[in-house]
Design goal:
Layout: H1 7-32, E1 45-48, E2 56-63, E3 69-74, H2 79-85, E4 98-104, E5 110-116, H3 126-129, E6 136-139, H4 146-170
Parallel strand pairs: 1-3, 2-6
Antiparallel strand pairs: 2-3, 4-5, 4-6
Helix pairs in contact: 1-4
């Protein structure tokens, strides 16, 4: 005679479903270099790119680039050069809406955010591409990728299989 136990659901959720969900949803982020590293080393770093005697500034580059992190670069560096210093965008980077956060050191000491389209460099003036000290540039992933689709389908299949197993065990 089989007994139904509410603890079976907790065991399945805590021991099987949640770790699988975590692994499948974070696999793409970890592969891209923007998430926490499972090996304990940081995937972001500090990069110094300058010649001796050059005036430099510090900027942050986050998101879907090969080497995200904090960069100390010559004051004349623009966004395209910064992305190049970072090894370039990843294949699923959304260059059509690159977000720039800038700290304005004026009487109100405020931050502004704006978006630029790096896919259409011919439509941007040099002023739009210029960096300022302390800028943070974020390149997100494109809204739909095949890898994301496969990840969602795989996660749904794992959850369905786990639920079906629990139902068959409790019957």
């Amino acid at each position: 005679m089989k007994t139904k136990s509410p603890c079976v659901w907790k065991i399945v959720l805590a021991g099987v479903v949640f770790p699988l969900l975590w692994t499948s949803t974070n696999a793409q982020i970890l592969e891209s270099g923007i998430g926490p590293s499972l090996t304990g080393s940081s995937s972001a770093a500090y990069y110094y790119i300058s010649k001796a005697g050059e005036i430099t500034m510090q900027v942050n580059l986050w998101g879907f680039v090969k080497n995200p992190g904090r960069y100390e670069v010559p004051i004349s560096t623009d966004i395209v050069q910064l992305v190049s210093f970072a090894g370039g965008p990843l294949h699923n980077a959304d260059l059509g809406s690159v977000k720039v956060t800038r700290h304005l050191r004026d009487e109100r000491n405020r931050r502004v955010e704006f978006t630029i389209n790096l896919n259409r460099l011919d439509r941007l003036d040099d002023q739009a591409l210029n960096l300022q000290p302390g800028d943070t540039i974020f390149i997100d992933s494109s809204s739909f990728t095949f890898e994301a689709f496969v990840g969602v389908v795989t996660t749904a299949a794992i959850i369905t299989a786990a639920v079906a197993n629990v139902i068959s065990v409790t019957r």
